[in-house]
Design a protein that fits this description.
Strand content: 35-45%
CATH architecture: Alpha-Beta Complex
Number of helices: 4
Shape: globular
CATH class: Alpha Beta
Order of helices and strands: EHEEHEEHEHEEE
Structural class: alpha+beta
Number of domains: 1
Strand order of the largest sheet: 2-6-5-4-7
Helix content: 25-40%
CATH superfamily: Cyclic phosphodiesterase
Length: 190
């Protein structure tokens, strides 16, 4: 079985800005499992463990979706925590830009993967980039202050021009992601 998810990659300049911001957050010295900036991505759908023989059908489904989508722009902006900054478990950077197109892409991926036997996501889609997961309660007040002081955080806008099916291997130093295939958008611009 292969642990998989569908995501949007971030360009290197955006990763570099996120790395600088993460360094600022780390100054709180809170007990957080930080995500390496080169591993930060926008997850569209977590598929879980998938038998290797199902990958070609997934590829076909995602390529079909990609033929109906044209590139669009997003921007990493704002920051916060789930469920709230006061009760943080996940630290994130938000996204703005062409949110409607991103939502449409998410719905198309759901519609293409559910017939293949994958669970439908019932929670509302809250696009975000996960920076870290809280592992302990110590020094969270300092981290909360840093997050509150950086609500206007933003990185440069970037083009979303493909989706990627990733394999995820859990390692002691965090998950390692390997692209299984990329599905570039070839739809006509809207």
């Amino acid at each position: 079985m292969i642990r998989t998810f569908i995501a949007v990659d971030l360009p290197s300049p955006v990763q570099a800005v996120l790395e600088r911001f993460e360094r600022e957050l780390r100054k709180a010295d809170a007990t957080v499992a930080w995500i390496r900036p080169d591993r930060i991505h926008l997850t569209l759908k977590f598929l879980g463990n998938v038998a290797p023989e199902r990958i070609p059908a997934l590829r076909e489904a995602l390529e079909s979706v990609s033929r109906t989508v044209s590139p669009f722009r997003l921007q990493a902006a704002g920051c916060g925590a789930f469920p709230t900054i006061r009760q943080m478990r996940v630290i994130w950077v938000g996204l703005r830009g062409d949110a409607d197109r991103l939502g449409d892409l998410k719905q198309k991926i759901e519609a293409a993967t559910v017939p293949l036997g994958f669970e439908s996501e019932d929670r509302p889609f809250k696009p975000h980039l996960t920076l870290g997961r809280v592992k302990g309660r110590g020094r969270l007040s300092v981290l909360q202050e840093i997050l509150m002081a950086n609500q206007s955080f933003e990185a440069e806008a970037f083009d979303v021009a493909e989706v990627v099916l990733y394999k995820s291997d859990l390692k002691p130093d965090g998950a390692q992601y390997t692209p299984l295939f990329r599905a570039p958008f070839t739809g006509r611009p809207e």
